[in-house]
Automatic annotation (TrEMBL):
A GO CC annotation given for this chain: nucleus
Highest classification ranks of the organism: Eukaryota, Sar, Alveolata, Ciliophora, Intramacronucleata
InterPro entries: Alba-like_dom_sf, DNA/RNA-bd_Alba-like, UCP030333_Alba
Domain DNA/RNA-binding protein Alba-like: residue ranges: 16-75
Keyword RNA-binding: yes
Gene: Contig7975.g8516
This protein's name: Alba dna rna-binding protein
SUPFAM superfamilies referenced in this protein's UniProt entry, alphabetically: AlbA-like (SSF82704)
Molecular function GO labels: RNA binding
Keywords: RNA-binding
Source species of the chain: Stylonychia lemnae
């Protein structure tokens, strides 16, 4: 049985798929995307309805900071069931990202900066 990560809710979904929700902010999905890219060459962000804008922001941040490159973007109209068994159509966005050649280098830089910031924070706390 495959292990699933947070964001992977359906047992039948691929291990490299992230289902984007409106309950979390784009920065969460940037963090999650970097974690997935550590294990996979290609990841997919899937978003339905209002979560589309969150997935676009997260994907753009991953690309802008050279963690990934856009491989494919596609949309589909899907039928979803509502609370009272009412069916409605919603837009679903699929963003496929490929790990950037500079991924490892950028992760190393990010971790170094994070460690420096944590050290500064500890230093400030000891002065108080």
């Amino acid at each position: 049985m495959e292990s699933t990560k947070q964001g992977a809710t359906d047992r039948n979904q691929p291990a490299n798929q992230i289902n984007v929700s409106t309950k979390k902010n784009p920065n969460f999905y940037v963090f999650l995307g970097k974690k997935y890219l550590e294990e996979h060459e290609i990841i997919e962000l899937h978003a339905l309805g209002n979560a589309v804008s969150i997935s676009v922001i997260a994907a753009e941040n991953l690309v802008r900071n050279n963690y990934a490159t856009f491989k494919e973007i596609k949309t589909k109209t899907v039928e979803v069931s509502g609370n009272k068994d009412e069916k409605s159509k919603k837009a679903k966005l699929f963003i496929t990202l490929q790990k950037s050649p500079q991924f490892a280098e950028n992760m190393a830089k990010f971790n170094k900066i994070r460690e420096e910031n944590e050290a500064l924070k500890k230093e400030e706390q000891t002065k108080q």
